[in-house]
Design goal:
Elements: H1 2-40, H2 44-49, H3 64-72, H4 75-85, H5 92-114, H6 118-162, H7 167-177, H8 182-194, H9 199-209, H10 213-228, H11 232-256, H12 258-281, H13 283-286, H14 288-291, H15 293-317
Helix pairs in contact: 5-6, 6-7, 6-11, 7-8, 8-9, 9-10, 10-11, 12-15
C-alpha cells in the first residue's frame, strides 16, 4: 500500500513540476535574450561616453588654466612636499601667485616713483622671496619640534614594549599621547599599516615626510631589529639616548657659533640697510651709482662680494653633527 502511494505521488509531481520548470526556463531565457539584445543595440558612442576616468585628479590651483600648467611642471611635487612638511594648507599655485605678486607689484610701483631699475629689482627680489622664506621657516620650525619630541616618543614606545604591547600598539600609543607634529606623523604611519602597507614602507613614507637624521636612526634601528631579531625595547632605549646626545651637542654648537652667525647677518644686511638709509636722506648723492656705468658695475661687484662673504661665513659656522 505504501509503495502505491509513493508511485502516485511521484507521478503527480512529475505531471505538475515539469511544465512549470519548462515555462520558467523559457521566461528566464527570454529575459536573458532581451537583456543581451538591449546591450548589443547600445550605440558605441554612448559606451564611450560612459568610460570612467580612473586617474587621480590633483588640484594644484583653484584657477583651471594654472592647474593644467602646474601639472606639467616637475617643480610642483617639490612645492607640494615642502608645503605639506610646513603644515600649511596652501596649494602650489597659491604660493607661486603670491611670489609673483610680491615680485612684480613692488617693481612696477617703485619704477613709477623712482624711474630707476636697480632698486626696484632688488626690492622686488626681496619681497618675492618672502613667501618661500616663510614656508621654509615654518618647515624648519616644525622639523625642530619633531626633533625635540622624538626622544619622548621613543621612550613612550619603550614603555609600551616593556609592558607587553606589540610595536604597532606602541606606535598607536605614541600617536594618541604625543603632541603634534610627532603624534600626527606616527598616526599617519600607524594608519598606513592598518590599511595594509608593510612596516618598512610605512616607515619610509614617514621618512619622506620628515627627512631628519634622528628619525633615520630610529627607523634603521627598528628595521634592523625586525630583520635580525633582538630586544626592541633596549634598542629603542639606546636610540633615544643617542638622539638626546646629538640634540645636546647641536645646542652647544649653536651657542659657540652664535657670534659668527650674528656677524654674518650683520655684514650681509649692513650695506643694504646703509644704502637704503642714504637714499632716503640724500637721493641725489647715491643715485650716481645707478646713473653711471661705473656705479652699476660697482654695485654688481658689491652684491657678488656680499653673497660670497655670507656663503663663506655660513659654511664656517654650519657644523654638521
Amino acid at each position: 500500500m505504501g509503495l502505491i502511494v509513493a508511485l502516485v505521488f511521484v507521478g503527480v509531481f512529475t505531471l505538475i513540476a515539469l511544465p512549470l520548470t519548462a515555462l520558467g526556463s523559457s521566461n528566464s531565457s527570454k529575459q536573458a535574450l532581451a537583456t543581451l539584445d538591449s546591450a548589443i543595440k547600445v550605440d558605441r558612442k554612448d559606451l564611450r561616453l560612459q568610460k570612467l576616468n580612473v586617474r587621480k585628479n590633483e588640484v594644484l590651483s583653484s584657477i583651471p588654466w594654472l592647474n593644467q600648467k602646474l601639472l606639467k611642471f616637475e617643480l610642483t611635487p617639490y612645492l607640494r612636499r615642502i608645503l605639506s612638511q610646513a603644515d600649511l594648507n596652501w596649494s602650489p599655485g597659491r604660493l607661486l601667485l603670491i611670489t609673483l605678486a610680491g615680485f612684480v607689484i613692488p617693481i612696477y610701483v617703485l619704477m613709477q616713483v623712482t624711474g630707476s631699475y636697480l632698486l626696484p629689482l632688488v626690492v622686488g627680489a626681496v619681497l618675492g622671496a618672502l613667501p618661500m622664506s616663510f614656508v621654509l621657516f615654518k618647515r624648519s620650525r616644525r622639523f625642530g619640534q619633531f626633533e625635540k619630541g622624538l626622544p619622548e616618543a621613543l621612550d613612550l614606545m619603550v614603555s609600551g614594549l616593556r609592558a607587553g604591547h606589540s610595536l604597532l600598539a606602541a606606535m598607536a600609543l605614541v600617536a594618541r599621547e604625543c603632541p603634534d607634529p610627532v603624534g600626527n606623523e606616527f598616526r599617519i604611519c600607524f594608519e598606513e599599516q592598518n590599511y595594509g602597507l608593510e612596516m618598512k614602507t610605512a616607515l619610509e613614507n614617514m621618512l619622506e615626510r620628515v627627512p631628519l637624521q634622528d628619525l633615520k636612526i630610529a627607523t634603521a634601528a627598528i628595521l634592523i631589529q625586525k630583520e635580525s631579531g633582538g630586544n626592541l625595547a633596549e634598542v629603542l632605549d639606546k636610540t633615544s639616548y643617542v638622539i638626546r646626545e646629538r640634540f645636546r651637542l647641536k645646542r652647544q654648537i649653536k651657542v659657540h657659533t652664535a657670534q659668527g652667525r650674528l656677524t654674518g647677518w650683520i655684514l650681509t644686511a649692513l650695506p643694504i640697510a646703509l644704502g637704503v638709509g642714504i637714499y632716503f636722506v640724500d637721493p641725489q648723492m647715491i643715485s650716481i651709482l645707478w646713473h653711471r656705468a661705473i656705479g652699476i658695475k660697482l654695485m654688481w661687484a658689491a652684491a657678488g662680494l656680499i653673497l660670497i662673504g655670507g656663503f663663506v661665513i655660513h659654511k664656517i659656522v654650519d657644523i654638521d653633527v
